[in-house]
Design goal:
The chain is α+β, with helices and mostly antiparallel strands. It contains 13 helices and 10 strands. The strands form 2 sheets. Strands 1-5-6-10-9-8-7 form a 7-stranded mixed β-sheet, with helices on both faces. Strands 2-4-3 form a 3-stranded antiparallel β-sheet. Bound molecules: 3,4-dihydroxyphenylalanine (DAH). The site of 3,4-dihydroxyphenylalanine has 11 residues, from strand 9 and strand 10.
Length: 345
């Protein structure tokens, strides 16, 4: 009888020693079977009373030994498994996990529009000039023939620097004309893209910061017809070969004569009526023949040279190209807005 029970314990011992535990789930089953509150060794302790006296001690030792083996086995395997999962975590290697999509940026619609305009003029020989946004009074106003008492100088329109009324945030890119003419000799053929600032109430239609592209061409015998042809070429490249343009007489202190150029947008639907205020025409730029006084202010002989210039707003054109109806969207940098221009170029 007792040898039977001895061999049962030895069998369990062998089972434990050969147990193949390689996962946390298997380890838990192992624990329940050999070390849990209802483990299979427990009833064996109760058998001790049936064993002949001289073997009682031996039996007790054997069962304790088996229990010990089970405990050692358990903690050994557990340690191994813990270490393995730690390693996996630190390497972070899960070859089956789906890849993280790369976040690819997109060009800002203002940059796209600006680059398009720059490209159009570069193809006919205009060179990009970039200049400072903090300008002095002279380059922004005086050189551009804007007298001291001109309403454009009013504090309401212009941001002056605190404690320095001679410096301001440029109100237009025309200041670059003065900088270029002072430093270069004709022939001059430049475009000046950049940001400008005006103290305006922010709304869906206007902002205190926006972008312009200025153009200037100074040489001998430059005529109004040259200007018209250059701007027609631009409109065709930008809005299609069938575009219609018109020049309306206007006034700017720095050009004489001055004009504003409209492109025909059309009146096909309600939006067209709203955008063009019911006329079908859209004003996109101001232009004119450079006032001889401006040439002289910048050290260019106005008897020998003539020139034309223009300044166009970028936001307005970007809004048209992409059907955007609120100028503030350009400056909020909300990725949900910007992401929509991924495929534009
Ligand atoms: N500077 C003008 C503005 O900000 C635009 C402009 C008009 C620029 C006529 C010019 C020009 O060069 O000739 O509204």
């Amino acid at each position: 009888m007792s040898s039977e029970i001895f061999s049962k314990v030895n069998q369990i011992k062998e089972e434990i020693e050969n147990a193949n535990v390689s996962s946390l789930e298997e380890l838990e089953l192992f624990r329940i079977k050999y070390l849990g509150s209802k483990n299979i060794l427990k009833p064996l302790f109760g058998e001790i009373k049936n064993i002949e006296n001289q073997r009682k001690k031996e039996f007790g030792q054997l069962v304790n030994e088996v229990k010990q083996i089970a405990e050692n086995q358990f903690s050994q395997v557990k340690e191994g498994l813990d270490q393995k999962s730690e390693e996996q975590e630190s390497v972070g290697l899960d070859l089956t996990a789906p890849g993280e999509p790369e976040k690819i940026g997109s060009k800002h619609p203002i940059s796209i529009t600006m680059n398009k305009i720059i490209g159009i003029f570069e193809r006919i020989g205009f060179v990009v000039e970039e200049e400072r946004e903090i300008e002095d009074d002279w380059h922004n106003f005086t050189a551009m023939n804007t007298p001291e008492d001109h309403p454009a100088r009013d504090m309401q329109d212009t941001y002056y620097l605190l404690n320095d009324p001679k410096h301001l945030l440029r109100t237009h890119t025309s200041s670059v004309q003065a900088r270029v003419m002072k430093n270069q000799k004709p022939p001059i053929r430049i475009i000046a893209p950049g940001r400008v600032y005006r103290n305006e109430t922010i709304s869906a239609r206007s902002h205190c910061q926006f972008h312009q592209v200025e153009g200037l061409y100074v040489d001998e015998n430059v005529s109004f017809a040259d200007m018209k042809q250059t701007l027609l070429y631009f409109a065709q490249e930008m809005y299609g070969k069938d575009v219609k343009i018109r020049l309306r007489p206007s006034f700017f202190p720095f050009t004489e004569p001055s004009a504003e150029m409209d492109v025909y947008w059309g009146l096909k639907n309600e939006d067209d009526y709203r955008i063009t205020k019911g006329t079908g025409w859209l004003e996109i730029l101001g232009c004119g023949m450079v006032d001889p006084q401006v040439l002289e202010n910048c050290g260019i002989d106005s008897k020998k040279y003539t020139g034309f210039a223009w300044g166009m707003g970028i936001e307005r054109q970007a809004m048209l190209l992409y059907g955007i109806n609120d100028i503030r969207l350009f400056f909020e940098n909300d990725v949900r807005f910007l992401e929509q221009f991924k495929s534009a170029r």
